[in-house]
Amino acid sequence: MGRFSGLKVIWEGLRGQTGWTPMWRDPEPKAEYDVVIIGGGGHGLSTAYYLAKEHGITNVAVLEKGYLGGGNVGRNTTIVRANYFLPGNSEFYSHSLKLWEGLEADLNYNVMHSQRGLINLFHSDGQRDAFVRRGNAMVNQGDDAILLDRDGVRKHLPYLDFDNVRFPIYGGLLHPRGGTARHDAVAWGYARGADQRGVDLIQNCEVTGIDIEGGVVRGVQTSRGPIRAKKVAMIVAGRSSQVAAMAGMRLPIESHVLQAFVTEGLKPVINHVVSFGMGHFYISQSDKGGLVFGGDIDFYSSYAARGNLPMKEHVMDAAMTLMPMIGKAKVLRSWGGIMDMSPDGSPTIDKTPTEGLFVNCGWNYGGFKAVPGSGFSTAHLIATGQHHAPAAKFRLDRFLTGRGIMDEEGTGAQHNLH
Ligand SMILES: Cc1cc2nc3c(=O)[nH]c(=O)nc-3n(C[C@H](O)[C@H](O)[C@H](O)COP(=O)(O)OP(=O)(O)OC[C@H]3O[C@@H](n4cnc5c(N)ncnc54)[C@H](O)[C@@H]3O)c2cc1C
């Protein structure tokens, strides 16, 4: 499993790509590990990678019920940004974006991180004020934000409908370091990096039970037999409630479907990520030319990784409102993923009442950008027992006490309102 280099790519091109080897091993599960991670998505894989790289803990297994990256990490619309407003979230996503900026060099893997800039549109004076405050918070955090007036937006995005009767465009908040990355490549890069450091990545291995004795975690039951472990981390995104129930826990999580859409490949037309919050719509263009866009969650709880028609109609409606030219493009594909929606729109990285059992969940529709930061902070917590400073507010007990709630959208700490 050689490292990638320009020379190797050229050499393999010349000899018909015959010299590549699998990017990770396919090991049989061992009887016991120091750490078992349930879930081979972005967060599980990055946690394993940083456990090995930052803390030298390599006797680790990632147990994935399907195939690596087959969950939400490979289903999202790939937006990466650090434009959160509230203390707690702000420093965490700022740290995560810094990790993104060094990720390709760190993993020796092209994750196609593209800082093409993100523009959040506003449509009223009140909304402008809110974005000014957000922009100031971002700058205070050390990140970048530029307020654009209507003409400023027009310079970047001339094809928008600026005079829509319901949502005339007043301006936008530009986050130049925001952008996109290739989602599968992020999963593959972390998987390869973890495997190279000795982590066992075990696919087709569903966790069916968590073994607890006297308040201490002892291991897991799986579709490939029991595995003992000193520590276990539940990092299963949309399945968080189901897996936590195996440990007798009831999480403040509702699982909902979020859909995404992609058109046929077009010539370059959208250079940024554009977010139209009032219409619950956002869009960017992939390197292959497809317009990639999405909207709000389907409003009912579900574990089906497919969406339903009303939300499709809503998203197309918003697209036509914002950029009528999109009506000429043909949608090629749509799909859904299962979101772990938390009441305050903010995540959890914490210990549980069971000794040695950890939980990472509640990433809502924004967990792709969190993959590096989440893995880094979760690995820190598992290895040291201490909360990593940028993620120190992601405690589960905020829902019990009401203290420390991070209501990022200002909609009240209620499911479905953010
Ligand atoms: C349509 C869509 C668009 C999105 N757009 C964005 C975006 O633009 N930007 C952004 O930041 N975020 C976005 N997200 C959110 C982001 O994708 C998720 O928050 C994030 O991927 C969740 O973390 P993960 O990668 O670890 O999840 P997953 O990839 O879902 O990983 C969890 C894994 O756990 C496994 N698992 C579950 N139960 C078990 C079990 N019992 N045993 C073993 N394994 C189990 C699953 O099979 C799965 O592979 C979007 C999501 C969707 C669906």
TrEMBL record:
Q: Does the keyword Transferase apply?
A: no
The entry's cellular-component GO terms read: cytoplasm
Domain spans labelled Rhodanese: 35-79
**GO molecular function per UniProt:** nucleotide binding; sarcosine oxidase activity
Q: Where does this polypeptide localize?
A: Cytoplasm
Q: What is its main location?
A: cytoplasm
Q: Which Pfam families match?
A: DAO (PF01266)
The protein's Enzyme Commission number: 1.5.3.24
Tell me its cofactors: FAD; FMN
Q: Which GO terms describe its biological process?
A: tetrahydrofolate metabolic process
Q: Which family does it belong to?
A: Belongs to the SoxB family.
InterPro entries, alphabetized: FAD-dep_OxRdtase (IPR006076), FAD/NAD-bd_sf (IPR036188), Rhodanese-like_dom (IPR001763), SoxB (IPR006278)
Name listed for the protein in its UniProt record: Sarcosine oxidase subunit beta
Q: Does the keyword Nucleotide-binding apply?
A: yes
The record lists the catalysed reaction(s) as: sarcosine + O2 + H2O = formaldehyde + glycine + H2O2; sarcosine + (6S)-5,6,7,8-tetrahydrofolate + O2 = (6R)-5,10-methylene-5,6,7,8-tetrahydrofolate + glycine + H2O2
The source's domain of life comes to Bacteria
What keywords appear on the UniProt entry? Cytoplasm, FAD, Flavoprotein, FMN, Nucleotide-binding, Oxidoreductase
